[in-house]
Design goal:
There is one protein chain. Among the domains are: about 80 residues, Serine Threonine Protein Phosphatase 5, Tetratricopeptide repeat, CATH 1.25.40.10; about 70 residues, no CATH class. By secondary structure, the chain is mainly α. The chain is elongated and about 115 Å long. The longest helix is centred in the C-terminal third of the chain and has 24 residues. It contains 30 helices and no strands.
Length: about 625
């Protein structure tokens, strides 16, 4: 309906504004904005009186609609115009809501110092008006913004205190929409601090109130709740339940936000992470890149939300063996986060951990250990002793000790990781399965094979329930069961497990992936134990070709494979071939500054023995025997 028809009606402009407010409450922000723009244009060009109060109300409403549509630049322009005009008034109360609205946008844009200054000024000025009827409403908004700011800065205890303050103010004035939003925000803070049960309670309360208040299950305000529920289910290891929330969030965001929107990006990111969990890497990269492009379009290139997406993409890259590409992205994200967030933010800890994981995969254990220690320190300082990130940090450090053959330190750190994960999530969680798996490996190296099998089976049971049958975690567990059965002399069982592991990895990755080389290596080992040296050699050679392709000739994993082929040649008395392989392994490990000095010394002695045996053989036997 055209503006003139509204203005000719008996209700006039009031009816027009009410119509825009109705559209806003239904989540039809673009339609509401169109009406407000038409009305504002009409009032500014007609001869009718247009009071400052009415003008400011319309400008603020237009700003809020732009803000809901994530058009932050336009929203800030309107808020700033109102602020400049209201500051001429002697009544500072008029400026508080506007200052808070601008601060909300600055928080979204990661302009934290500017937002902090405005909110501190708001809180200080608000105390003057403590006895005014508007006080609770104003303080609810200011406290909520302070909570969001503290959360983004990684100050979670402050964030929780502020959001609880906001909830109290909203309860005082019975603001249901405020409570819906604030329960969701408190749920996010609980989730960030691994208080999973409390997070679930708040999110359920927020969703239930939202449906009751809106009278529908299709409203854009629900997208944030759905996205948060999806993440909570992922943390709990309930990926398929989380997928239901993701699909609903995407459907609503595409319905209400045809253009780029932060909640749409968040839903795409969640979908990408879901695909990653199930090793569907092409789909994962596609969705995460969609999310990152939206974040860049709305927030710019240098923003924490952009670096989060970059970090996830780089994790996929190094899992696929694309180490240089992963390293470049991770270091770039780290530098951006340092500039915005400082040195002690949990996002910095997350970046350190991911870079550590990259170095671990490259076989650079000293560098990995240093990054993991820096990560652990930040997580302990921010979260205390009971948080999901602590479990991952202890597990990472345990893995470095394990690879350096310090099994007692590995065991100590894996047990710490298990304790944290078990206390947070209970038995049926991927993190608990991960630590059972790790403990099995350590107990096996300490000679307790029965305990090793027991822990692998505990891990496998959890993994199958969560992931189904074709997941790389399950492939890892099958492979380790194959190794331990081989060491126990149960070669047929060992062969079956190694074949199951290879089948999953080929299904997930195809035949050009570093984990496939690990399965080839495991099969080579079993066939060697079965004295089928021809088949063993075939699998070892497949393994070494892939390892050289992914890691290079001088990587520790390539060196270990060379060493195994050397033992195999030694078994069939091909002494020169054996020496050649051992020498390649020795040179690669020496070049990599192998931390296991005893292993390096043993290799050196093996080469000396082979030199002696070859010399004796050449002296006493015909040359063509070789």
């Amino acid at each position: 309906m055209e503006i003139e028809q509204h203005l000719d009606s008996q209700e006039g402009p009031k009816h027009y504004q009410e119509k825009a407010n109705q559209l806003f409450s239904k989540g039809e922000y673009q339609e509401a904005l169109d009406l407000l723009h038409k009305y504002f244009s009409y009032k500014t060009t007609s001869d009718e009186e247009f009071s400052q109060k009415e003008k400011h109300e319309i400008l603020m409403e237009m700003g809020r609609n732009h803000q809901k549509l994530c058009e932050f630049g336009k929203a800030k322009e309107y808020f700033q115009q109102v602020l400049e005009e209201k500051q001429k008034s002697e009544n500072a109360l008029d400026t508080l809501a506007v200052l808070n609205s601008i601060a909300e946008i600055e928080i979204c844009l990661a302009q934290y110092p500017a937002a902090q200054a405005k909110l501190e000024k708001c809180k200080q000025l608000a105390e003057i008006y403590k006895d005014y009827p508007e006080y609770n409403e104003i303080m609810s908004g200011i406290s909520e913004s302070l909570a969001l700011l503290a959360k983004e800065k990684g100050e979670f205890s402050n964030a929780l205190a502020f959001i609880e303050e906001a909830i109290e103010f909203s309860q005082e004035k019975e603001d249901k929409n405020g409570l819906i939003r604030q329960y969701c925000r408190r749920g996010e803070i609980y989730m960030d601090t691994s208080k999973i049960k409390k997070a679930n309670e708040d999110l359920a309360k927020s969703l239930e109130m939202s449906v009751a208040e809106k009278g529908t299950t299709s409203h854009p305000d629900m997208i944030e709740i759905l996205n948060t529920f999806a993440l909570l289910n992922s943390i709990n290891g309930k990926f398929k339940e989380g997928k239901i929330f993701i699909d609903r969030a995407i459907a609503l965001s595409e319905q209400f936000f045809p253009k780029d929107h932060l909640q749409k990006a968040r839903a795409y990111l969640s979908l990408g992470l879901y695909y990653k969990k199930f090793n569907q890497y092409d789909e994962a990269i596609k969705e995460i890149e969609k999310a990152r492009n939206i974040y860049r379009n709305i927030l710019g290139n240098e923003h924490p939300q952009v670096t989060v997406s970059t970090n996830y993409l780089c994790t996929i890259f190094y899992e696929q063996g694309e180490y240089p590409k992963a390293k470049e992205g991770l270091l770039e994200a780290l530098e951006i986060n340092k500039r915005i967030l400082g040195e002690k933010h949990p996002s910095i800890g997350d970046s350190y951990r991911r870079i550590g994981c990259l170095h671990k995969e490259e076989g650079k254990y000293n560098e990995a250990f240093d990054y993991f220690q820096k990560s652990l320190k930040i997580f302990l300082d921010v979260f205390g002793s009971l948080h999901e990130t602590l479990a991952s940090a202890y597990s990472d450090i345990g893995t470095i000790y394990y690879r350096l053959d310090d099994q007692h330190q590995a065991l100590k750190n894996y047990k710490k990781a298990l304790e944290v994960s078990y206390r947070l999530f209970g038995e049926d969680h991927p993190n608990v399965a991960r630590e059972y798996h790790n403990l099995g490996m350590v107990y096996g190296d300490l000679g307790n094979k029965n305990l090793e099998v027991k822990y692998y089976k505990k891990a496998l049971k959890i993994e199958k329930e969560i992931f189904g049958k074709n997941h790389t975690n399950i492939a890892d567990t099958y492979q380790n069961l194959g190794v331990v059965y081989g060491e126990m002399g149960l070669l047929d069982k060992a062969l079956k497990k190694q074949e199951q592991s290879l089948h999953i990895r080929l299904y997930v990755f195809g035949n050009k992936h570093h984990s496939v080389s690990s399965s080839y290596y495991g099969l080579g080992y079993i066939y060697a134990e079965k004295k089928d040296y021809y088949k063993a050699m075939q699998f070892f050679e497949k393994s070494i070709r892939l390892r050289e392709e992914f890691y290079g000739r001088c990587h520790m994993k390539t060196a270990n494979c060379c060493q195994s082929i050397g033992f195999l040649y030694d078994q069939v008395k091909a002494l020169k071939d054996s020496r050649k392989c051992f020498l390649k392994s020795y040179q690669a490990k020496k070049r990599q500054s192998c931390q296991n000095k005893a292993s390096l010394q043993n290799l050196g002695r093996t080469i000396e023995y082979l030199d002696r045996d070859i010399a004796l053989a050449e002296k006493n036997w015909p040359e063509d025997i070789f």
